[in-house]
């Protein structure tokens, strides 16, 4: 009680308060294409894009930057040396992709080209094992399992903290809209004399947000959530083609999603209002000089910023091009 009163009574200038806050919860710059805006624990970043648009790869690169140490045996890796919890709702995560990407980062920091023959056995295995220990993974097949995971998240995070002696810094969800159509089919109201609220698309989203908010109060984390993009407007595809004066074979629409249609939000309002940052990934409209690699463009929707990046996906991961 004494310590509580002493904390309340202490006078603090705005400068001192700002220094304390930035020290306790510093900004972090993530790998491309999330490098444009500084982020911190408590932020909820939504990565929106069609399939494929490297959303999972972006999460993997951010996870590697988190689990790598800042320095190891005299070599600078620039990592945070913190833990990551990855919740896979798409059920397609490949741990081998994480393993290969982590080895390439270790190679790169040591000045070893990952394409060189024999480098697969030259990486620091001790460092690799220590990094992989900081990556926790869980898979959910429906919203009931997802909610159960969130309900027990506090216990799991505390267990990881005691085991790894470090707190989980990033919570990753891939992808947040995976059960949209299943949840949409759930009944929207309770029946009979049972007053218990039934699960529906709206109540699931509200409960997800509420549970994550509760966890963030005790375990401050940066939340990164991938989400499949939905494009379109009130016009039909034929109307868009007719009004734009283009023929259907002009490649206005392709398998990666309509390039000239706006992004259409489909998640419930409870989740939309919870998101603090949103970045949209699209297939690039311009001619690419990297014909052997897919090219994408970025657009920050929240907060709205004027700049955008183009990036390709190659063996080294996501690479911004100019």
Question: Could you explain the architecture of this structure?
Answer:
By secondary structure, the chain is an alpha/beta fold. It has one domain (36-188, 196-230, 265-321): 3-Layer(aba) Sandwich (Rossmann fold), CATH 3.40.50. It has 11 helices and 11 strands. The protein has helices spanning 2-9, 14-24, 55-67, 95-109, 125-133, 143-151, 153-164, 180-184, 201-218, 237-244, 269-274, and strands at 44-49, 71-72, 75-76, 83-88, 135-139, 168-174, 222-228, 277-283, 295-302, 310-314, 317-321. Strands 5-4-6-7-1-8-9-10-11 form a 9-stranded mixed beta sheet. It has a two-stranded antiparallel ribbon with strand order 2-3. α3 crosses α4 (95-109) and α6 packs parallel to α9. The longest helix has 18 residues, at 201-218.
Alpha plus pi helix count = 11
Uncertain ranges: 114-121, 190-195, 234-259
The total beta strand count reads: 11
Report the end-to-end length measured between terminal Cα atoms: 58 Å
H and E string: HHEHEEEHHEHHEHHEHHEEEE
CATH homology-level superfamily: P-loop containing nucleotide triphosphate hydrolases
The helical percent reads 25-40%
Largest sheet: 9 strands, mixed
Average pLDDT number: 80
CATH topology-level fold name: Rossmann fold
User: Beta-strand percentage?
Assistant: 15-25%
The second-level CATH architecture is: 3-Layer(aba) Sandwich
Taking Cα atoms only, what radius of gyration do you get, to the nearest Å? 22 Å
* Overall number of domains: 1
GO molecular function, one term: ATP binding
Organism: Buddleja alternifolia
Region (Disordered): 236-260
Domain RecA family profile: 20-236
């Amino acid at each position: 009680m004494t310590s509580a009163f002493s904390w309340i009574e202490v006078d603090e200038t705005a400068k001192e308060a700002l220094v304390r806050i930035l020290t306790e919860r510093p900004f972090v710059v993530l790998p491309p294409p999330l490098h444009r805006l500084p982020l911190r624990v408590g932020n909820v970043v939504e990565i929106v894009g069609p399939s494929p648009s490297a959303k999972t790869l972006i999460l993997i690169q951010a996870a590697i930057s988190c689990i790598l140490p800042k320095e190891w045996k005299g070599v600078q890796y620039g990592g945070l040396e913190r833990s990551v919890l990855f919740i896979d709702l798409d059920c397609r995560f490949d741990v081998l992709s994480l393993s290969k990407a982590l080895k390439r980062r270790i190679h790169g920091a040591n000045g070893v080209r990952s394409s060189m023959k024999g480098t697969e056995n030259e990486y620091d295995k001790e460092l690799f094992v220590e990094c992989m220990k900081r990556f926790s993974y869980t898979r959910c097949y429906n919203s009931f399992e997802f909610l159960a995971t969130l309900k027990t998240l506090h216990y799991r995070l505390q267990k990881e903290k005691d085991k790894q002696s470090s707190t989980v810094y990033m919570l990753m969800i891939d992808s947040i809209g995976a059960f949209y159509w299943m949840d949409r089919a759930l009944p929207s109201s309770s029946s009979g004399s049972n007053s218990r609220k039934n699960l529906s698309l709206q109540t699931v989203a509200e409960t997800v947000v509420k549970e994550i908010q509760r966890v963030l109060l005790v375990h401050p984390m940066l939340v990164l959530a991938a989400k499949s993009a939905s494009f379109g407007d009130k016009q039909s595809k034929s109307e868009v083609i007719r009004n734009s004066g283009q023929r259907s074979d002009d490649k206005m629409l392709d398998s990666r999603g309509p390039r000239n249609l706006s992004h259409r939000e489909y998640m419930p309002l409870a989740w939309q209002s919870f998101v603090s940052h949103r970045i949209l990934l699209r297939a690039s409209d311009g001619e690419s000089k990297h014909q052997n690699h897919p090219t994408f463009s970025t657009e920050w929707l929240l907060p709205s910023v004027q700049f955008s990046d183009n990036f390709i996906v190659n063996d080294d991961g996501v690479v911004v091009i100019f």
